[in-house]
Amino acid sequence: MVETIDGARIAYLTGQYPAVSHTFILREVEALRSLGLAVDTYSIRQPKPDHTRGSSEVAAAQDTFYVLQAAKRMMPLLAAQMRLFRQPKAYFAALKLALQMRAPGLRALLYQLFYFAEATIIADDLDTKKVTHIHNHFADVSANVAVLASRLSGIPFSFTLHGPAELFAPERWQIGRKIAEAKFVSCISHFARSQAMYFSDPADWPKLKIIHCGVLPELYDLPRKVDPSKTHFVYVGRLTAIKGVRVLLNAFATAAQSNPDIHLTIVGDGDDRANLERLAAPQKGRITFTGYQSQSEVAATLASADAFVLPSFAEGLPVVLMEALAAKVPVICTQVAGVSELVVDGANGYIVPPGDEDGLADRLITLAADPEKRAAMGIAGRARVVKDFDVRKEAARLAVLFQGDLSGPPRPSDPSIKGPT
Questions:
Q1: Choosing a second label site near 39 at 20 to 30 A (CA), which of 48, 354, 365, 402?
Q2: What are phi and psi of 333, to 5 degrees?
Q3: What does the alpha-carbon distance between residue 140 and residue 373 come to, in Å, rounded to a whole number?
Q4: Nearest to 345 by CA among 368, 314, 321
Q5: What is the pLDDT of residues 304-359, one digit of tens each?
């Protein structure tokens, strides 16, 4: 059992944990534990086998409480409803809140009742473990469960606001109501905080704090294995429409006409993979699809990269950009959400308008032709990540909030140094 700080014990909840696209949550949990906080992980769903490729992911899966798995067993589900008799006021207050937060329609009502049932199961486990605070990543389904578990148990809750999905439907996900119910909200960027401000009461704005997702920079200190005979571009992410990979394939085809000695590795999987592989077929051996990779496998792929490309139509503040910059790999990305809070155009990478095939192709050509620029951008990118996106520094900021100190500025100071950062 991990030694606690000031008796704090934190329950971390999300929709699926661990997940290959959400390794930042795993790193955050590990960083908090290294600071001495007791952290118990909860997940609505169990991960599929391809989400537990690394040893850290396997260990995390074995140590996580899976809510749907427990809810499928009749006895735990019925036992959790005994709270009605032990704490009827809290039980009915939570049920009322569940009904108030539902979206229109019968189906939405049924789902909200499912979330309430899941919350009762979690609340019982929270009581058993003497949890003192609930923290949820993302503001969608699992946050519905978290806020209800908080109301049932009387344990304060907070959540991390990422975007873009939750921000596309703020009314559906009751963003303003969740902010009102929360002890604090961890916003991953200034952009995310501004959206939270827009959807919430100004009286709640002091709750909105900026805590970056982060990486361990040293994990990307691998020997460089670049091939001087070609320029190797890498994409890492889900293979789905919102990531703009079709735009990347078209831009890459244009760039290859000017520079045939370029190669693209696409890491990830998703519902659009078959179509993307078909579109990439004319490029023959220039484009490689790898499927999912673990954290260590991604680090190894980045060690062979000359530049990283993320052509998304919408993002929050992509952790994969932090990983690439930590590996001293310059990035080409799109001007969406909080991206410019990490990437400085012309300094550690290039920013292009989303959907701009010609602009993206031009930047591919530019970086392919200039290894000195790539090297300088990589060094600048590494320095940016070390300064403001080290997960240990961000976890230390978050730990201060878990201990109840919300008095600081929107971007909390690094507890290890004096003054704001």
A1: 48
A2: -145, 180
A3: 41
A4: 321
A5: 999 999 999 999 999 999 999 999 999 999 999 999 999 999 999 999 999 999 99
**Strand partners for 72:** none
Q: Which amino acid is at 149?
A: A
pLDDT digits (tens, 9 = 90+) for 2-49: 344 567 899 999 999 998 888 899 999 999 999 999 999 999 999 887
Does an H or E element contain 325, and which?
Answer: helix 319-326
The mean pLDDT of 88-115, rounded to a whole number, is 95
Rounded-to-5 percentages of helix, strand, coil across the chain: 50, 15, 35
Distance CA 43, CA 64 (A): 7
Q: Write out the H or E segment, with its range, that includes residue 210.
A: strand 208-210
Locus of tokens 């040893």:
55
Backbone angles phi, psi at 205, to 5 degrees: -60, -35
Copy the structure tokens of residue 319.
């952790």
Burial of residue 267 (number of CB atoms within 10 Å: 0-12, 13-18, 19+):
buried
Residue 298 structure tokens = 């991604």
CA distances to 56, 161, 258 from 61, in Å: 9, 23, 47
- Tally the residues of the chain: 421
Q: Are 23 and 323 in contact (CB under 8 A)?
A: no
